[in-house]
Amino acid sequence: MFDWTQQLADWFTYNLLGLVKGNHFADALNFFVFDTIKIFILLFFMSILMGIVNSYFPIEKVRYALQKRKWYGLDYFFASFFGTVTPFCSCSSVPLFIGFVQGGIPLGVTLTFLISSPLVDAVTVTLFLGLFGMKATLIYVISGIIISMVAGFILSKMKLEKLLTPWVQQLIENKAKANDEFKEEKTPLIKRLPFIFSEAMSIVKGVSIYIIIGVAIGGLMHGFIPINFFEEYISKDNPLAVPIAVLLGVPMYTNTAGILPIMEVLVQKGVPLGTTIAFSMAVVALSFPEAMLLKKVMTGKMLAIFFAVVTLCIIISGYIFNLIL
Amino acid sequence: MIEIKVLGPGCPKCKTTYSNVLEALKQSNIEANVVKVEDIEEMMKYNVLTTPVLMIDEQIKIKGRVAQVSEIVELLKK
């Protein structure tokens, strides 16, 4: 599918600029051109696709569906699945959290949504697809859904309701008023498209600078770091590699668009893919600024439990990835 | 006078929305009372799930994304 991109990159570096193949700088530039074009195309189409799904299943509709029906445990899957297609801004996490629990949605299900929404987002998934291929992407998405379900379920069993901040507990007690009906928009797809298109453009525009910088650094490393350089330090046999990678990733609040192109090169130079996936998950799922925001609704103890459970789930999956990949 | 509210806990998207509102007012020569709602408890009174939210005269116009200057100008004309 991307043969033509490689040809274009080859033509640009070796023919147009007349650089010699095998030269470090030429190869780095070739890699940069190829990767950026590929990622931008993928990102644009993925954003459109997610935009279409999201315009038919806006967050209000998801909440309404979770409130109104009996799910017999399937609500965890539903919350997790729709978390993946809902665009997520960490500053929405608190209103979303309150809106869900106030609507009578169980705490565990709410937390599942809160984990899956940033964990499996369009930008991260697209970058995985472009940089690591289909297999790694499927593993990322499926395990992301499973992790958010398992973590939400475990947290629900811990009966954490009492550890919410008092004003949130009060809101839950007066939850009746949040039961307003969801009014569906009856706009045909063709009329929604221009809007979806401009949203997709703004997503691509928003992360473009990170992608360009990330791929540029990756390109330089690609040309200059010898193959298997990292194998000595971070190998699958090192039992501490996964927890260390995850614990490094948790407080980080970085754009995955910038960090994943660098990770791609690290994988080529010998860092295990499973460890890389676990690290990426830790970066996107949890962050220090998000903890600060959630402090408004969770007491310190609950916040610590929430972070600990999610971190643990990611570490365990990191080991599993390294076993199967 | 029109009252415009921007709801959001102070993330970059909310700040962009706020400055877009000011820009839209300047472009359309309309005077309005612009309020930034950053307190979450206050925000929850409007039953919003995603931020930023743009409200004109207590009505939610745009939520969950940054409102573009041209969009706000259009909304203000109505």
Topology:
The complex is a heterodimer of chains A (325) and B (78).
Chain A: H1 3-16, H2 24-56, H3 59-68, H4 74-85, H5 93-102, H6 107-119, H7 122-157, H8 166-173, H9 189-224, H10 241-249, H11 256-268, H12 273-285, H13 288-294, H14 300-324
Chain B: E1 2-7, H1 12-28, E2 32-37, H2 40-43, E3 53-56, E4 59-63, H3 69-77
Parallel strand pairs in B: 1-2
Antiparallel strand pairs in B: 1-3, 3-4
Helix pairs in contact in B: 1-3
Instruction: Give the total of domains of chain A.
Output: 1
Distance between the termini of chain B: 14 Å
Poorly predicted regions of chain B are none
Major sheet attributes of chain A: none
For the largest interface, the chains and their residue counts are: A-B, 23 and 19 residues
Return residue spans of chain A where pLDDT drops below 50 for at least 5 consecutive residues. Answer: none
**Strand sequence of the main sheet of chain B, in spatial order?**
2-1-3-4
Radius of gyration of chain A: 21 Å
| CATH class category name of chain B | Alpha Beta
Q: N- to C-terminal separation of chain A?
A: 24 Å
What integer is the average pLDDT of chain A?
A: 84
Task: Give the structural class of chain B.
Answer: alpha+beta
Rounded to an integer in angstroms, the radius of gyration calculated over CA atoms of chain B is: 11 Å
- Name the CATH superfamily classification of chain B: Glutaredoxin
Mean pLDDT of chain B: 86
State the helical fraction of chain A: over 70%
For the record, the CATH architecture of chain B stands as 3-Layer(aba) Sandwich
Assembly type of the shown chains? heterodimer
Find the count of extended strands of chain B (DSSP E, 2+ residues): 4
